[in-house]
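Protein: Glycosyltransferase family 10 (Fucosyltransferase)
Species: Hoeflea phototrophica
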Amino acid sequence: MTETVCRESEAPVVAIIPYGTKLSPRLANMSLDDLSWPIGRPARLQHGTVANMGPNDHIICYVSSQLLYMPRPGVRAQVSVMVVEPEAVHGRNMAWLKVLWWRFFRVLSCNPRLLARLPNGERYLFGSTWVPEYRDLSIEKTSMISLIASGKTYYPGHKLRHQVVAWIREKGVDAEILGRGYAPFDQKSDGLAPYRYSVIIENVREPGYFTEKLIDCLLCETVPIYWGAQDIDQIFEPGGMLICDSLEDIKTAIGTTSEADYRARLEFVAKNKEKAASYANHEEAAARIVQTAARRKTSQS
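Structure follows.
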């Protein structure tokens, strides 16, 4: 990620500890160069460690059990936590956040049940993208339907993808099955940009929970045949999607696909691409939420 040196007046500063970083009580000793700075890094923090960040600066961490309990000696910056994966993955951590919320400046999540229990919760829709080159794509629709799947079978969405694949093969449906579990490809956009439609199945269904699976599809101007967040029609234009609740719904939706149907949806496809772009940089979005909350708190004090 390219860092931008921000002006000193552009406080509050927000840095993010990258996903997968192993945390320890020696957080204060972490080099500032090891953090990401999605909305700018001030000159005063071009060198040093987390200990050099002041009480008006902010750090965001991805949730982990270690983070919830870990002492943070020497850390003066305010620490927030973001929960980017669903309750099916982080149910235990979410339960503890209802008790340990006070250890954090803000808790970012899309989970309505968690947010309802937190005085410092902020709604955060994750999104993200694996198609960072989407602005430069040359999009030409030459095929009808794709489905990208891995070989995993753990979550309900994993199993549903394989059920759809089995049905497609049994019925001889004109759809290309791609992904690590079937036919690997080099770039994620290769499995989306040439297709008018793509079967997009999240790993689980939870309100507000959608991932790069959907965002990448929309950024490639492809109509998703979508199974996932139950409230997705409140976030994106349903006219640019085929929203499904079951295997039978997916089968029916696939049967309605055509060049004419795709053309009829182009207005909504364009609107959804624009909306999807706002969720592509998930770390910047998280930083903006914390920055806004910090400014709001300052104005109220």
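Remarks: The radius of gyration is 21 Å.
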